[in-house]
Structure formats: structure tokens, C-alpha cells
Amino acid sequence: MNFDELLKSAGNTGDFTIWQIVFVLVASFVFSMLLAWAYKQTHRGLSYSTSFVHAMIIMGVTVSIIMLIIGSNIARAFSLVGALSIIRFRTAIKDPRDVAFLFMTMAVGMACGTGFILLGAAFTLFAIPMVYFLYRFDIGSMPTAEVLLKVHLPDGTDYHNAFNDVFARFLSDHALLSVETIQGGTALELVYSVQFKKDADERGFLDAVRTVNRNSKVTLLSGQQNVNV
After folding, report:
1. Domain locations in the chain?
2. Between the CA of residue 140 and those of 17, 57, 144, 225, what are the distances in Å?
3. pLDDT tens per residue across span 24-82
4. Which residues share a beta bridge with 182?
5. How many CA atoms are closer than 13 Å to the CA of 214, on its beta-carbon side?
6. 3-state class (DSSP) for residue 60
7. Is the Cβ–Cβ distance between 194 and 167 less than 8 Å?
8. Is a pLDDT exceeding 60 seen at residue 181?
9. CATH numeric code, 146-221
10. What is the DSSP track for 147-172?
11. What gap in Å lies between CA 19 and CA 161, rounded to an integer?
């Protein structure tokens, strides 16, 4: 192959014009950006990552190009599957909701890459209100006032009965989740799942717990449904 033929093959866009390719790229980018914006606005917890948002957008655009490359060519499809199978992703995704957003950006990328631009636009315009609706009305959450209590006790204390009086005064329910030795075995760290009585004074509860554990550390964490660390 001479230099002129190489240049000609390098500029080959198959059945697409350069403007069609640009349109697909821009459309997939815009749709992915809108989904990323919805993800940012409705995210909860402490695991928010800017890198993940960028990955969503990049994935949407990349999938659109992959679909353009494959087209209706089965041989290309199998070649790409073989090439992509060597990639290994070692980053753990903590929230299943993040996986759903990745699939949504992949879907709009596939729609754009296969020429179904209106389908990609319709899905994006439907997905954003759907995500906001689930977020706004907290669909699927359990109505509970449950919180986590983390408390330190000196070693040798009868932790099974130490807080019985305090818990009876302030709590409607409680359960011991874990016991761990800390500070070289000189203290214990207890984690309880607790539910306050109606109109219970949380500050008074903390003061009562500190009286029992001799002013050692006491921590209240938000409900288990909202803890994301």
C-alpha cells in the first residue's frame, strides 16, 4: 500500500459522512451530560465521585462510536468483543444505583450510535424525571427512626447490662450489632442499632450514656439506609 492509498483508507468513514459522525458524538455527549447532571442532583451518601460522573459521560460517547464501528457487521462485533474481553475493571462500585446510571448512559450511547437519536432523546427526557421522582419521594425506603449508636466502655465492664436503665428510658428498641476491643485491649467499642421513643431527647440520651461510660466517646450515626461509607 502506497502513501496515497494509506491516506485514503485513513479518511474512510464507511457509510457515514463526517457530519453524521460529529452529530452522533455531540448527541451522545449531550444526553450523557444530562444523565450525569441528574445523577449529581439526586445523589445521596458520602461516596460521590467526580471521576465516576466523568466516566459516565465518556462511556456514553465511547459506546456510540463502538456502535458506529460495528454497524451491521457481525465480524466486527465479534472482533470488538474479543478485544474488550481483555480489559479488567478492578474498581468496586458500592452503590447499585451507580450501575443503573452506567447502563443508562450505555443505552443512550447505543441509541445514538445506531441512528436512533430520537429514541435516545426520548429515553433521556423520561429517565431524568423518573430518577428525580424516585429521589424526591424516597421510593422503596422503610419508614424508620433507626440510628446507629457507637459507644466506648472500659474493659471489664458488663456491657450486656450497663445501659439497660438508659435504654429503657429513651429507646423503644435496640440491638447490639458488634463488640470490638480497642486501645490495645483496654477498652471496648460497642455498636448498637437503636430506635428512639417518640419525643425522646437525644441530647439527654447522650448525656445519660456518657454518665455510664465515664465520659468516654459516644457517637450517633444516621440511619442504616442512609449510611454510605
Report:
1. 3-136, 146-221
2. 47, 28, 12, 11
3. 999 999 999 999 999 999 998 777 889 999 999 999 999 999 888 887 677 767 666 66
4. 187
5. 6
6. helix
7. yes
8. yes
9. 3.30.70.260
10. EEEEEEEETT--TTTTTHHHHHHHEE
11. 74
